[in-house]
Queue: 2 jobs
Job 1
Amino acid sequence: MISDVLLVSRNTLGRDIAVGDIHGHFSKLRAALDRVAFDPDRDRLFSVGDLVDRGPECEHALAWLAQPWFFAVQGNHEDYAIRHLRTGQVDIDNWRTYGGGWFLDLPRERQRDFVDAFAVLPVAIEVDTAEGKIGILHADSPVADWQTLSGAFSSHRRRTRTHAQWSRRRLQEDDSRAVAGVRAIVVGHTPVSEPRTLGNVLHIDTAGWQPDGYFTLLDLATLTPL
Ligand SMILES: [Mn+2]
């Protein structure tokens, strides 16, 4: 059984950096990492999910996921792929509109390679830092207290996953209440023109996957962009 929550111990060697939705723009991400002299021997990169769909390099996701310095949670676009293959219960026309065509047009065996890699991704990551624990989720926190997260996955798994991967409520309602029990939570999913903090929830999807957007690389020690 794959756990929905992955605990990652402190990086004593280098930096921990978070990035928003990638959506198949791995070359652009690589260029952003080069600008901050990302060192794969010491630094680690945490993705808020949505590695694929929309962009031209979706198939690169497998190579990135195989790197020991790359961590990712499952976004709603990974969820589309998993549900499509496993249940067939995905609105295909809707997904194609949001960039899923590259996947839908792959041979079944190749689709399975991606789903195998996506299905083992956690929905939440908890990273320990010198300043406290940081949560990584795709869309929003499904709990008001981070300490209750594992319990929420156990007792209401479907609802908890759906909220974590799809919700835009916090931004829509401009809700600045902090999530207890955690230093900060980093999310993507809803594009923002610049990083936006509500309470202790940091929205960092500055649409690096769009021509006029950019990748925000957030230092998890300082909680500021590099
Ligand atoms: Mn998303």
Job 2
Amino acid sequence: MEERTRFKFVIVGSGLGGSAAAHVLKESGESILLLERGDFLKQERQNWDVAEVAERRRYDAEELWLDQNGRPFRPRIYYNVGGSTKVYGAAALRFRECDFSSRRHDGGATVSWPFGYRELMPYYERAEALLEVHGEAGEDPTEPPRGAFPFPAIAHEEEIERLSGRLARQGLHPFHLPLAIDQGPGGKCRKGSPCDGFPCMIRAKGDAENRLLRPILLKKTPNVTLWTRSYVERLETEEGGRRVVRARVIKDGQAVLVEGEVFILSAGAVNSAALLLRSASDRHPAGLANSSGLVGRNFMSHNNSVVLALSPFRKNPTRFQKTLAVHDFYDRGSRTGGPLGTIQLRGKVTEEMLKSKRNPLLRIFRRAIALRSVDLWVMTEDLPDPGNRVALDPSGAIRLERRPTNMRAHRELLRKARRAMRKAGYPICIVDKRGVNAIQHQCGTARLGTDPSSSVVDEWCKAHDLENLYVIDASFFPSSAAVNPSLTLLAQALRASEHLLLESRAGRA
Ligand SMILES: Cc1cc2nc3c(=O)[nH]c(=O)nc-3n(C[C@H](O)[C@H](O)[C@H](O)COP(=O)(O)OP(=O)(O)OC[C@H]3O[C@@H](n4cnc5c(N)ncnc54)[C@H](O)[C@@H]3O)c2cc1C
């Protein structure tokens, strides 16, 4: 017989969504269990070792998925307390007002959110305060209405300040990229260490563990329990099929049945969908919460490329490079007037990072390139397409079926980025494209909406089909916009969790 235990709130996954839910629901005083399949990510010397992290993939999950052709690949996915935010780049942008409505792109259309920017505005404020976001209001030409940032913007280093001036002289509006990093006077961040794509050895990054979970765990909040190395296999309902009653968990290799009153699924966009599909039963033959047939569908993860812009005459000694962005082509800019996306600087590329690149140019001249390059992250919107989906292979493995969307807009933004960099004095621009298997901004697989036939969860992230199942992670995004997802995920996670807290206090949860 397996062990049994019972909690009021059961949260699956300790990433940004799950941590936010625990942060809000702890106020209920009710018992809360967070189930995390991974362990704490160690603070160790290797956190900043490029070969260990980028080449040997020390912190990536040891798992193989299948692509649309059935070929196995090892996804860049992170199973540890804090989820992907342990390695994220901490760019913390709000969606623009226009991102909440349906928009026509060159490659198709997006879907509206059931609420607008104003509804999320107070939660964005709280999200920025929680993650300790540094930024400067009023600089970004597409910025939605907002007050001051909780912390001043992280200053550009000399080379980037010069670049900012050269871009401004072209009529563009470069701005300080909002970042959830404790840098600036009195800040913890040591500028020279790798950050974007790396764990922070000194906890200067505003990740889900540092800012949301650790304060709960350090205070020994008695009603919150975290189980690590606890993999949720299935969620099961009572006979009527309207309520989830238990999770089947493998904890340190042992089977445990966790019963609960409210279940919150926060396993990330791919794994939440996979768990719902794995939880199929007689009552829910297509998977849990899947009467719409949309669980796993509309997978999105942005279209991304890196541009290495080089001046043969100038070295780039910048240590912390990710401080600047350009949004002049966010709203418009395509040949038909459609939206394009964001151009941001990324963490400084080093010689070691180029060692295993497929492009021989990057590999052979890696030393010279890394000394000189200014490195850009060019990102455009990935559009919802039901054919792009997470499915389960008969072997039980996750199958990610994905074909690119909206690539014309991506190529157009790449052209604009290269042209701007050439004019700014970087005549050589090498593009390093990310493949369709780059899943760092995964979202959309259990989209929120008001119509149960075209969405999986309602505007409070509650599954339409069930009374007590919530999906609070990047799965709920109906559209992905073209800015980094975390802040919007956190804002809506706070909003949905607060609603759940009120329902619980009123005896309705
Ligand atoms: C390299 C990288 C850079 C990024 N940079 C940025 C950035 O600069 N700005 C930005 O906004 N976003 C960035 N992102 C994206 C951002 O990190 C994610 O959007 C966000 O963290 C997603 O949170 P989540 O809660 O949806 O899922 P996750 O972070 O994936 O968390 C899910 C958690 O659930 C656990 N889990 C999964 N399955 C199970 C199961 N069956 N049982 C128990 N536990 C389970 C996982 O171990 C994980 O801890 C980046 C991501 C990556 C990978």
